[in-house]
User: Fold this.
Amino acid sequence: MNEKNKYCVCESCEFRDIVFAYLDDSTIQELCNNKEEHSFRKGEIINHEGEKITDFKYLKSGLVKLFRRTSTGEEQVITITRPFEFVSNMSIFSEERYRYSVSAVEDSVVCVVKLDFIKDLFMKNGSFAMGLLTKISKINDKIISQTLDIRQRNLIGRVAFVLLYFTNEIYNTRIFDLPVLRKEIADYIGMSTANVIRTLSDFKREGIIKVFGKTIEIVDINKLEILSKRG
Amino acid sequence: MNEKNKYCVCESCEFRDIVFAYLDDSTIQELCNNKEEHSFRKGEIINHEGEKITDFKYLKSGLVKLFRRTSTGEEQVITITRPFEFVSNMSIFSEERYRYSVSAVEDSVVCVVKLDFIKDLFMKNGSFAMGLLTKISKINDKIISQTLDIRQRNLIGRVAFVLLYFTNEIYNTRIFDLPVLRKEIADYIGMSTANVIRTLSDFKREGIIKVFGKTIEIVDINKLEILSKRG
DNA sequence: CGCGGCTTTGATGTTCATCAAGTAAAGTGG
DNA sequence: CCACTTTACTTGATGAACATCAAAGCCGCG
Assistant:
């Protein structure tokens, strides 16, 4: 172990494999010096719709939701996403200002690098550029296909779908604490809060899930998968 | 004028400004030699969901729709888009196979370049890479925001929204021929065919539009804009 | 001119939002 | 720590929005 490692943890960060794989150690070192880590408590805003984009940000730990506010003031939740997906993913290269807001739904840590630094790397290092493009494309693909998956389902299918999303994609456990309000699930799947709750109650009554306040246990995942498909 | 121009029209193609701005003339020439133009008749499939992606394709003229088929066999239309948006936009850098199908809704011409050629350029030329990333991001942004715009509206708002989309974004005229079936509009906005037709009839009855078969004239665009907002 | 696909309209039923009222839980100040 | 307030959750009743079904008209095409 050389001395650098004491000051820079980026070298061993899991994120390195994802977009920073093609950077040599000295560049990683430089990245690390340019990087700041910011902590956000549950509920805090990370990016605000309309704000100028000056930084490249990615989620190191925690969980965030991407959303926007409609003209009538309602929230539309675009996605809820885990570490190593970009936080400022959408518009960093296409827009001057954020199109959407991002907030922490669990306590989160975000790594922040000046966008110019990333752009510079992007221009100079083709492999890095390709890796970044690929990653950004994948994130966008995922958002779009998720949106379509939700859209094709009815109320029951949508609720089943988010439960499976939490259990399979976010937490990888059958029992977990819902990080969001019932209302936020409603805003995510485009249904009313009352009906989301009603459907959860139905699932509970049928023994598909157990609910203790915020804690949810998936009891019958097969049935949930069937409901997610057939509605 | 030198001799090259006789063989290559890419130099003066409108598309050059959009993503090929940072290529010098000799590279453009090379691009041109690697390029093929393919014509598609209305209704023909350009890319098929699940097919291997080997080419970089962009729409030179015409109009296409991007869509996928759900497990129950229904079509979900993701977007309907004009020239110089990519045809094979979504997954070229993130997936090995097309996630979605693309078909021509009007007779269309598509320019086809081997994806490897583009990837090679991307690696070597930072400005080109940046331009391409920006363009791809914008296209993805547009799809996502369009999807959200549709989702927040009710039936009337959605129909008004597509009419405005055709008149403002696609054709830039108040009178145009609908390039798609009523059913395809329904699949686009996520409503039933019958209700799309009913709503069009309502608009006609209220003097907001005139309909002669496939031809539609927007009579009262202000009212349409109000309906698109308020529903 | 007859056939098939698209469009149109009406009638009916389902799905879902809305409203309202009540309960539980979580935060707040004394 | 308890009373108070607020915010989230839950459930039922009602009505609106939308899908579905069916029948008929239209239109292009062989």
About this structure: The radius of gyration of chain B is 19 Å.
